[in-house]
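Module 6 notes. Inverse folding takes a fixed backbone as the condition and produces residue identities as the prediction. Think of it as a translation problem where the source language is geometry and the target language is the twenty amino acids. Below is one complete input and output pair. Work through it position by position during the lab.
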């Protein structure tokens, strides 16, 4: 073959397209969390267990364990790690898009959103991040007169990294008070960066739930005077550590689920005031129904019940400034594993409709004595006989937290006494509206009855 023919044949071969190797579609990854099941994951992402098993080549679904990485079918084209979370305080649909690797259509697709109004603080949200450890979270708010270089250096990150992670061309793209995001560990990230005096606002737990105690923690850069409200209840903030303030507030067990308003006002030393307000999701809890109860009809008479409610409410509304407890609360009886009714249970009395709800926890005696113990240090603000509550004691533990002990056979403290955790304050009985010997224990936080078991099993600040 001549050289010309050889060159021509080579050119022709180069013009023939080679077969293109088809690329496998990309799928996002979800890491199995404690308590997850394949069925729960399938429901979360609107798929089926069979599709998850097939895509991930799972041979034994019964051995899916915490930490297992699963590709999620039906979400082709989306990459990264999918994370279950709640919308943080201060975030909106639009601010989430500013730092999310997801497009608006993908964010709506994963979360089945039909409107930006469905995204509000505390609402469940699925986001994507580049790895299982870090995510883009609120990092710094650019304040007037502060350059990007100055802000980045103060926070220990390069300006180039901030620009890249926020998809900005340069510092000219940034406006005053704009929030920038950075790849951080979630536990190290600030969820609120929109004010130079406020470093962080945290509400826990989110979403809010009927009957729960809510902790509102505000970290600041300087001493501030804080006021606010949550679910129409005034918040009382108290200093915890340097430039850190805490308010505790109960959520009424009977409040309608939906959204409720959190508001905060902060005043500095020269009187400048900053205000913030946002809707937060409030969800329902499950409360069981008790058997029908039969009691003295007088204890149901509004002329008896209403004045007593007003008395107890007036005594448990003030938020005194000294927190008296530290750590777990003490058990009110030697044994608390014997109960007859739980907090929030739905009740009927004397063949009435089931229109009453239980404001505390009922413990029956299964110990060798009838001793009732103070659950935490505090000041006795009530110790007397009441027609509904019987022989009753209320103790003020500070910061708007009170404990109540109803139906006692004998009172062993008086108003004004300073008691310690574990001190005997009375004996179990069946006085007042009661049809058997038991201790009714109440926890009242911010003027609202809350789940007592939370205070016996968790540490509140």
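Target side of the pair, the amino acids:
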């Amino acid at each position: 073959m001549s050289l010309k023919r050889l060159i021509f044949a080579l050119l022709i071969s180069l013009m023939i397209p080679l077969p293109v190797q088809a690329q496998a579609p990309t799928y996002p990854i979800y890491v199995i969390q404690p308590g997850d099941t394949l069925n729960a994951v399938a429901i979360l992402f609107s798929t089926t267990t069979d599709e998850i098993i097939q895509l991930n080549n799972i041979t034994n679904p019964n051995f899916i364990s915490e930490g297992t990485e699963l590709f999620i079918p039906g979400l082709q084209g989306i990459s990264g790690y999918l994370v279950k979370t709640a919308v943080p305080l201060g975030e909106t649909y639009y601010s989430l898009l500013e730092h999310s690797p997801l497009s608006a259509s993908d964010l709506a697709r994963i979360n089945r959103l039909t409107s930006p109004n469905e995204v509000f603080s505390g609402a469940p949200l699925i986001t994507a991040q580049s790895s299982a450890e870090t995510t883009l979270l609120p990092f710094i708010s650019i304040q007037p007169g502060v350059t990007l270089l100055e802000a980045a250096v103060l926070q220990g990150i390069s300006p180039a990294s901030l620009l890249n992670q926020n998809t900005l061309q340069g510092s000219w793209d940034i406006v005053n008070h704009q929030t920038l995001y950075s790849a951080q560990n979630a536990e190290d990230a600030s969820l609120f960066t929109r004010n130079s005096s406020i470093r962080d606002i945290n509400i826990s737990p989110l979403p809010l739930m009927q009957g729960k105690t809510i902790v509102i923690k505000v970290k600041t850069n300087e001493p501030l005077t804080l006021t606010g409200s949550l679910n129409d209840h005034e918040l009382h903030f108290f200093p915890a550590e340097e430039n850190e303030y805490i308010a505790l507030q109960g959520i009424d067990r009977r409040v309608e689920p939906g959204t409720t308003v959190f508001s905060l006002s902060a005043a500095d030393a020269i009187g400048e005031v900053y205000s913030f307000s946002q809707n937060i999701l409030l969800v329902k809890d499950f409360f069981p129904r008790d058997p029908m109860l039969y009691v003295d009809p007088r204890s149901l008479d509004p002329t008896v019940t209403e004045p007593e409610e007003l008395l107890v409410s007036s005594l448990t509304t003030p938020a005194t400034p000294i927190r008296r407890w530290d750590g777990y609360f003490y058990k009110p009886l030697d044994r608390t594993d014997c109960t007859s009714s739980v907090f929030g249970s739905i009740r009927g009395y004397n063949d009435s409709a089931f229109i009453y709800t239980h404001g505390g926890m009922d413990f029956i005696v299964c110990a060798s004595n009838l001793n009732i113990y103070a659950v935490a240090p505090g000041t006795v603000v009530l110790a007397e006989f009441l027609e509904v509550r019987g022989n009753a004691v209320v103790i003020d533990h500070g910061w708007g937290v009170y404990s109540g002990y109803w139906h006692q056979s004998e009172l062993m403290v008086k108003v004004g006494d300073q008691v310690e955790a574990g001190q005997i304050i009375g004996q179990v009985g069946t006085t007042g509206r009661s049809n058997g010997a038991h201790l009714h224990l109440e926890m009242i936080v911010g003027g609202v009855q809350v789940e007592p078991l939370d205070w016996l099993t968790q540490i509140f600040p």
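Reference fact for the lab report: The domain at 133-194 is CATH 3.10.350 (Membrane-bound Lytic Murein Transglycosylase D; Chain A).
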